[in-house]
Amino acid sequence: MSAIKHAKILLCHSSRMNVVWIIVSCLVCFGVCSDGLSGNGTSRPAVVNVGAIFTFDSTIGRAAKIAIQEAVKDVNSNSSVLQGTKLLVQLQNSNCSGFLGMVGALKFMETDVVAVIGPQSSVVAHTISHVANELQVPFLSFAATDPTLSSLQFPYFLRTTQSDLHQMTAIAEVIEFYAWKEVVAIFIDDDYGRNGVSALDDALATKRCRISYKAGISPGTTVTRGDVMDVMVKVALMESRVIVLHAYPTLGFMVLSVAHYLGMMGDGYVWISTDWLTTVLDSSPPLPQDTMDTMQGVVVLRQHTPDSENKRAFSSRWNKLTGGLLGLNSYALHAYDTVWLVAHAIDSFFNQGGSISFSNDTKLQSVEGSNLHLETMSIFDGGPLLLKNLLESNFVGLTGPFKFSPEKSLIRPAYDIINVIGTGFRRVGYWSNYSGLSILPPETFYSRPPNRSSSNQKLYSVVWPGNSVQKPRGWVFPNNGKQLRIGVPIRVSYREFVSQIPGTNNFKGFCIDVFVAAVNLLPYAVPHQFVPYGNGHENPSYTDMVRLITTGKFDGVVGDIAIVTNRTRVVDFTQPYAASGLVVLAPFKKLNSGAWAFLRPFSAQMWGVITIFFLFVGMVVWILEHRINDEFRGPPKQQLITILWFSISTLFFAHRENTVSTLGRMVLIIWLFVVLIINSSYTASLTSILTVQQLYSPIKGIESLKETDEPIGFQVGSFAERYLEEIGIPKSRLVPLGTPEEYATALQRGPAKGGVAAVVDERPYVELFLSNQCKFRIIGQEFTKSGWGFAFPRDSPLAVDLSTAILTLSENGDLQRIHDKWLARSACSLDNAELESDRLHLSSFSGLFLICGIACFTALLIYTIQILRKFCQTSNTEVDSDGQNTTSHSKRLQTLLSIIDEKSDKSNRGSKRRKIDRSVSDDNIENDLERDSRGRESQVPSQNEVH
After folding, report:
1. Distance, CA of 170 to CA of 437 (rounded, Å)
2. What is the pTM of this model?
3. Which of 135, 493, 550, 890 has its CA at 20 to 30 Å from residue 70's CA atom?
4. What is the model's pLDDT at position 772?
5. How far apart are CA 322 and CA 63, in angstroms?
6. What stretches of 676-719 adopt beta strand conformation (E)?
7. pLDDT for the residue numbered 463
8. Please, what is the angle between helix 846-882 and helix 889-901, to 10°?
9. pLDDT for 359-393, tens place per residue?
C-alpha cells in the first residue's frame, strides 16, 4: 500500500511539473513573438536576391563589376542598413545584345530577385523594360543614358546616372557660348545614338542653332574602316566644321582615326565628344601616342561628381584593388551608389511591413507546356512598394546627393568640360543646369540664387585642333567645286542700282559694287556666280525672288532688296548698306507774295477760331463788368459798340475801358497773354512768307492721300504696293509705274487727266528721280524706316561676316565713294525752297485757346452763382413783405433780369475817382465863372454912376 501511495505522489508531482513547463514555454514563445512583431513589423529574410545585367568586358562594365562587388561588401558589413539580412547580387553578362539581355532578364525572373541593377546598354534597356513592367521588378541602370527611357512608358525603369538630355543641353550651351550656328552630328545608329542626337537637335533649336547634317553609322560589329571612310568624306564636304561625335568607344576611335587621316583634325575644325571618350581616358592607363594624336584639341564632357572625403578614400582603395591597371570612371561611382540605393530601399521596404512574395502571372498561363517554360516566372508582389521607396530615397553617396526629381531623374545634373591636349587632358570648365557654364565647380553656386546671364557664362581657353588657341569660325565653303548661286534682279528702271551687262551674266551698279567690295574684305574666298532673275520687260517681284532662297534655287540674293517684315521671316539679311523708307512724291507750284499774302500765316480754321474768341471774350468781360462798371453801361446800341470795340482793341492792347471786377481782370489777363502769342506767331510767319520762296502742294503726306480717292502710283516690283494695301488704301486706287519717265508723265497729268496725284516709292529711287526732275518734291517725312541688305538662308554665317564687311566699308569711307560714283545728284535736287511749312494751324494753339476758354467759363460760373444768390435773397424779401408766396413766374423772371441789369451799389474805386474828378472840375469851373463875373462887375460902372 505504501508503495502504491508513493507512486501516486510521484505521478501527481510529475504532472504538476509538466503543466508548469508548458506554461513557461508558451510565455517565452509569446514574448519572443511579441518582441519580433514590435521590432520589425515582419520577419526579415536571411538573404535578399538582386540581379545585375551589364557587359563585363566593356570599358564601363569592367569598372562597374568591381564597384558593385565592393558596394555589396560594404553593405553587408554595415549592420545599420539591412539589419542582419544579407544582400546577394547575381551578375549576368549581356554583351550589349538586346536578345541576350532579354534572355538574362528572363533567367532572373525565374529566381526570387526583387530588383535588377542594369542594364548598361540603352538598347538592352528598351528591350527588357517591358519585362520589368510586366513582372513589377524595378530595373536600375547606372549607364543607360537614352533620354527616352525616362518616359511614362517604363515606370519600373530607374536611371541612376545622368540622362543624355542634360549632356546634349550642355553641348548646346557650349556651341552657343562660341556663337556657332550649325553642327554636324556623327552617331551610332541605334536607340542610344538616334535618341541622343534627337535631344541635341531639340536643345540646339532653343539656341537658334541646328544640326545641318546627321551622319549615322551602323551599330553592327561588321562596320569596317572603309564604311567609316565613306561617311567621313561626306562630312568633309559639308559647310559646317563643328562636329559632335556620339558613339561607343570602338567606333568613336575609328571615326577619330579616319578624321585624322583625312586631315579633319586640323585648323578650323571643332570636335565635341560625348562622355564615352572621358570614360576611356579615365579608365585606361595612358593611351598610345598615335591614338592620342588622333584626338588632339577635342572637347569632351564627363559626368561631374563633387570632390569629397569618401570619394578620395574610395579612389585610394580602388587603386589598391586594381593595382593602377584600371582607372575609376564616373559610371563605376554611379554603379557603387546604385547598390547602396537598393540596400536603403529594401531596408525601408521591410520597415514598412513589406514581405518578399511572388505570384503567378495569369497572362503566361496560356503558354504553359511550351519549351520556353515561361510559367516559371512570377510577379513580385512587393514591387510597387519597393519602387516607391527607391524614388523616395535620399542619401549622400560617392557621386554626391543621391535623390530623384519628380521626373525620375537624378537632381543637380552637371558635367566637366575637358580638353584633350598632348598626352592627357585638362578641365576648362563646368556645366550644370543650375548655373550654366562656369569655371567654378557647380556646388559652389547651389547656395546662391540662380544666375544664367551671359556675363556669368565663362570657360577657360581651349586648344583647338591644329594646336590653335583662336576660336575657329566653325564653317567654311565646302570644297566640292560648287559656286554660290546669287540671284540678281533684272531691273528695267533705275539701272544705276543694278543692271545686267548685255550679252553676259555679269552685272554692274551701286549694289553690285557694294557686294563685291564686301566680299573682297572677307578672310576667305567666296566662289559665286550671278544668276539673273526677271523677264527684262518689268521689274521682278523682290518678295518672290527672296522666297526662292528657301527652295534652294538661290544661295543668296544681291540687289536693292528692302529689309521688310515678311521677308525677314524666311531669310536672314546682312547689315543695311543703304538707308531706305517710303516717301510721297508729288508735283508742286510756287507761291508768290501777292495782295492777300497777309492772310496766309493762319489757316482758315485758325482765322475763324480767333474771330470767335475775340467776340466771346468781349461778351464775357461785358457780362462780368456790366453791373459795376459805368463804362459797360448805357443804351443797348452803345453797349454793343462797346463790346465790339473792346474785343478788337485788345488785339493791339489799345482798349480804353478799364475792368473793375476781379473775375473780369482775370479773364482779360489770360486773353491778353493769348493775344500776345498769336501776334508774335503771326509776325514771324508773315516775315517768312514775304522773304522765303514758298512751294505749295494740296497733298500734305500719306495721311492726306488716305483721305482722298485719287489714284496713287507705285514702282512695279516694290513692296510699296503691299504696304499701301495694308494701311487701308484700296487696290483700285493703285497704279503701277515702271520707269522714271512714267513717273513724270503720270504726275504731270494728274488725276483729272488719267494720271496720279502722287507716287509712293522708296527714298533712294525718289532721290535719283529728283536729280533731273525739278518739278516735283518729296512731301512730308518718311513714314517707314528700313534699309537695303543682301539676303541669305536662315542662320547663314555668310550673312554675319558680310555684315561686318559692310560696317568696315562704311567706316573707311568706301561705301560713300561707291555711292557718289553711281548716285551723284544734280543742282536742282538741292533746291532748298520750303514747301508750305510756314502756315500755322489750329492744333499749334489749341492749348492756349483751351486755357482761355476754361478761364471764361469759370468766371461765368462764379458770376452766375453770385447772381442766383442775389436773386434768392430778393425773392425771400418779397415773400416776407407779402406774407405769402404768390409771386408768378413772369414776375420772378423780371426780378432776375432787373438784378442782372441794375447798377450795383458798390462803386468801383475807379468810378469813384472819376466821379470825384468830374465834381471837382465842375466846382472849379463854377468858381472861375463867378470870379470872372465879379471882376467884370467891378470894372463896369453902375447905371447910377453913369447917369
Report:
1. 8
2. 0.68
3. 135
4. 81
5. 10
6. 694-696, 712-715
7. 96
8. 120
9. 876 665 555 555 555 556 778 889 999 999 999 99
